[in-house]
Design a protein that fits this description.
By secondary structure, this protein is α+β, with helices and mostly antiparallel strands. The protein has 2 helices and 2 strands; from the N terminus they run ααββ.
């Protein structure tokens, strides 16, 4: 599980990494209904903007837990 809270406009920046396998395991043990929902339902990912390569518009369905 990697979450970008805010993109930094300067060089470098801090990243916050989380052990996604541990998070998924804890969710499966503590809330199996939610785990099942996140591992069987496709959610639409949408990202658009502009970077050094030009404009982009991405849209595709993904499982949140694979």
């Amino acid at each position: 599980m990697l979450h970008c809270i805010e993109q930094v406009s300067s060089e470098g920046g801090a990243n916050q990494f989380v052990d996604g396998f541990y998070v998924a395991q804890q969710l499966k043990e503590n809330d199996p209904e939610t785990f099942n929902l996140l591992s069987t339902t496709r959610f639409q990912f949408v990202d658009f903007g502009k970077d050094m390569f030009g404009e982009f518009n991405k849209k595709f369905p993904r499982l949140l837990i694979e």
